[in-house]
Structure formats: C-alpha cells, structure tokens
Amino acid sequence: MSAGLTLAGVSKSFGAKQVLDGVDLEVARGESVVVIGGSGTGKSVLLKCILGLIRPDAGSIRLDGQELVGLGGHALDSARGQFGMLFQGGALFDSLPVWRNVTFALTSGKAIRGRELHRLAIETLARVGLPADVADLWPAELSGGMQKRVALARAIASAPDIIFFDEPTTGLDPIMADVINDLIRAQVKAMGATAVTITHDMASARKIADKVAMLHGGKIVWQGPVSALDKSGNAYVDQFVHGRAEGPIQMAVRQ
What we know:
- The protein has 255 residues and is α/β, with parallel strands linked by helices.
- The protein folds into two domains: 178 residues, Rossmann fold (3-Layer(aba) Sandwich); 62 residues, no CATH class.
- It has eight helices and ten strands.
- The strands form two sheets. The chain has a six-stranded mixed sheet with strand order 6-7-8-3-9-10, sandwiched between helices.
- Helix 4 packs across helix 5, helix 5 packs parallel to helix 6 and helix 6 runs parallel beside helix 7.
- The chain starts with a strand and ends in a 13-residue tail after the last helix.
- The relative contact order is 0.18.
C-alpha cells in the first residue's frame, strides 16, 4: 500500500528570513521523489513541515486528500502512523539493542510480546542484508554502514505507506553509499511504498528517484523525471548537478 502527497503554496519564514516561499510539489502513490538543493535551501524545513514538526505559515499539505496542516493530538499521531523515516546519521537509540530499535514503531499502543518482536526484527534485518546475530548487538558496536542499514530496517519495519529519507548517504564512503542506495530502491519497490528523499548527493538522487525536484530560493524551480536531469534546460539544475562554482547559484565565501 502507498500514499500520495500534495503540497500547495507551502511557505515558512523565521523572522525576516523566508525559507519556503510557496512550494508546490506532487508525489504520486508509489512514486519515489528526490528533492535536491544546496545546504541551507530549506530541504530539512520542508521535511519538518510535512512531518508536522513545524507548522507552515501558509499553504496546504495533503496526504491522500487529508489536510495535515493544523492537525494535532490523535489525528496527527494517526497520520504519522503511515510514515516511515530514515534520519540523517541514523539516529538510533544508544540505550536500546538493535532489535528494539528496529521494532520501536511497532510497540506504540500494541501488545506484542518481546519474542515476537525479536523475530520480526531478525526478518527485517535480513531484508537489508544483516545477519540475525546483529539483532542482539548495541548501536555502538556497529560500523557506520551497519548503523545506516539498521536505521533503514527501522524505517520499513512497520510497512509504512510513505517513507522519508533525510540525506540517507551522509557520512558513508562511496561504496557503502551505493549499497544503501540499492537497498533503499529495492525495499521501496518491494513494498510498493511512496518515498520522499532530501539530499544533495547526486549519485543517490540518480539511483533512488523516479522524479527529481530542485528547491532553490524557497521554491521548486524545476521538477521532472530523473531521466531528464541532464537535459533539464534549467540553469540552476545544470549548475548544481555538475557542481560548478560559476552560475546563477552564488555561494557566499568569506575572504
């Protein structure tokens, strides 16, 4: 099962700084959309608005037609129950063993015995290429790549309708980053889930995305299929994709 997401006119400012300025974005059911953009362009703020962690100043965010902006209490919890999330850096709970981390979302308001949770954790870890004995380890005993796999297992364990990925390859070497990209693509496809990823890693965007949207100046300045990325005809996209210092995107550099 999957869910569709529609953003219309989403705006957010902090004091005099306008971070989001009328963002429009359509994510179809079962589609993998990657939002690219430089550091400080508002990608994380956009994600927090969708998750209900920040309330936008204006605009609409709908999940399968249900308005998320302004939801609170049980209604917000119910909507979030459809979400899976892979946080930047993994964000595992150091005080919990791996199997408890993986099944964390499954314990919310549900009476599931520890033995059953342990079994489910092992099954989910296998889906991301980790052996059963990892379930009883602690996060501190894992390498960075293994931590990221455990975080992915946690994101998919509850079979969510829509999964969010926040800079999923940050801190990984190129080979492990490619492994994670492959796992994300494979698991999202196997589940039939909708996926929204924010990243500035173009290798990740090319592998994960069905559609790419570029955020700049608080707006989506271009969106299209990943196959059109190299022939977008958009100067902002072209500069970003090819990592050129010269172009319409100007970086402030202190002399």
